Amino acid sequence: MKRPIVLHPDPRLKKVCAPVSDLSEARLKLAEDMLETMYDAPGIGLAAPQVGVPERLIVLDCEKTEEATPHPMVMFNPEIVARSDELNVYEEGCLSIPEHFADVTRPASVQVRWIDTSGNEREAEFDGLWATCVQHEIDHLNGRLFIDYLGAMKRQMITRKMAKLKREKARA
Fold first, then answer.
1. Among residues of the chain, what percentage have pLDDT more than 70?
2. Closest by CA position to 162, among listed 93, 70, 112, 109
């Protein structure tokens, strides 16, 4: 089931999320719904607070080309356990901040530990777009948005435009 995406500014996007304590049927269904929502948007990542759920759950799939086989990933309680010294700059966007993009500098690769949908602890290294995406989504779980990496003026401009967009949508 596709879920509505929470738009910035919204206080739910600025809160630190609670760890997931068990993989209930409802949580597994949430992960499935989040993947459907992400693909429909279309996006390459989505965090639970973006659908109004303050829990440490992210989904991602950075296989973007038509001919690529989808590679959906579901991560409960993801955490970065190591970061490279090497940095990468990617133009980032966010489903909660549609039509706004900016260059963000992040570690080029990260080692991430998480719980998979079977309840198993997993750990893997991500680089390139996957590294950027997983860091972006984990930031959401910590109440941080990609615009928080920008200068104050650019961040305020985007926030004002988003507030205006939300007012217009509310009137429609």
1. 100
2. 93
Q: What is the CATH number of the domain that holds 33?
A: 3.90.45.10
Containing structural domain, residue 33: 11-171
What residues are labeled active site?
Answer: 137
DSSP state of 20: P
Going by DSSP bridges, is the β-strand pair 97-107/87-94 parallel, antiparallel, or unpaired?
A: antiparallel
* Tally of domains within the chain: 1
Q: Where are the beta strands (DSSP E) in 13-162?
A: 45-47, 57-60, 73-83, 87-94, 97-107, 109-115, 121-127
Q: Tell me the pTM.
A: 0.96
Residue type, 37: T
Is the pLDDT score of 91 beyond 90?
Answer: yes
115-119: average pLDDT: 97
Across the range 136-159, mean pLDDT stands at: 97
Q: Distances in Å between the alpha carbon of 37 and those of 6, 22, 81, 103?
A: 12, 23, 28, 25
Instruction: Answer whether residue 60 is part of any domain.
Output: yes
Asked if residues 161 and 100 have their Cβ atoms less than 8 Å apart, the reply is yes
